[in-house]
Write a structure and sequence with these properties.
The protein has 6 helices and no strands. It has 152 residues and is mostly helical. Bound molecules: 2-acetamido-2-deoxy-beta-D-glucopyranose.
Length: 152
């Protein structure tokens, strides 16, 4: 599958250790819950976003608002948003500025601790990665984004 190959390649660039796990994971996905198909294949640089700590906080706040608004306010939304913020900052501090790499990192990091969120979350790790990428594309001022209906 073409999309799968692209995603694996990007994952290898972003995080070689998780790439293998992720490749195995996506092979085990049933078509019904294949979140990888929802991932936009596009390259958007976040070079224009310079303060990683602040941008990470803004993004976390947006993720929390999105989840609280779509579902109900919950502590797990804050925890998942914090995880995404950490992933964002780690990626940016290690020199990654492609939104796709950051999407992968956010989703992989959430997924590797999913037992902490599973009981309360209405969404999965990939929904959050996708929202974060939409948010970041919007935040970077890029208008070519097939964004979620609403960015918070
Ligand atoms: C970002 O999202 C807001 C709210 O959805 C929208 O009004 C704005 O036009 C978007 N900006 C870009 C550059 O797409």
């Amino acid at each position: 599958m073409k999309v799968f190959t692209m995603i694996s390649w990007v994952a290898i660039v972003c995080n070689p250790v998780n790439a293998l796990i992720n490749a195995r994971l996506s092979m085990s996905l049933k078509p019904h819950d294949a979140p990888l198909q929802a991932i936009p294949v596009q390259t958007v640089s976040l070079e224009s976003l310079e303060n990683h700590e602040d941008e990470g906080s803004y993004m976390a706040e947006s993720i929390r608002k999105w989840l609280d608004d779509e579902w109900i306010p919950q502590d797990v939304h804050i925890k998942m948003a914090e995880s995404a913020k950490k992933s964002y900052i780690a990626c940016r501090e290690s020199g990654q500025d492609d939104v796709m790499d950051i999407l992968m990192a956010i989703s992989n990091d959430l997924e590797s601790n999913w037992q902490e969120y599973d009981a309360d979350s209405f969404v999965n790790a990939w929904d959050i990665g996708n929202y974060a990428s939409d948010y970041l594309i919007n935040r970077s001022g890029n208008e070519g984004c097939e964004c979620s209906a609403k960015i918070y």
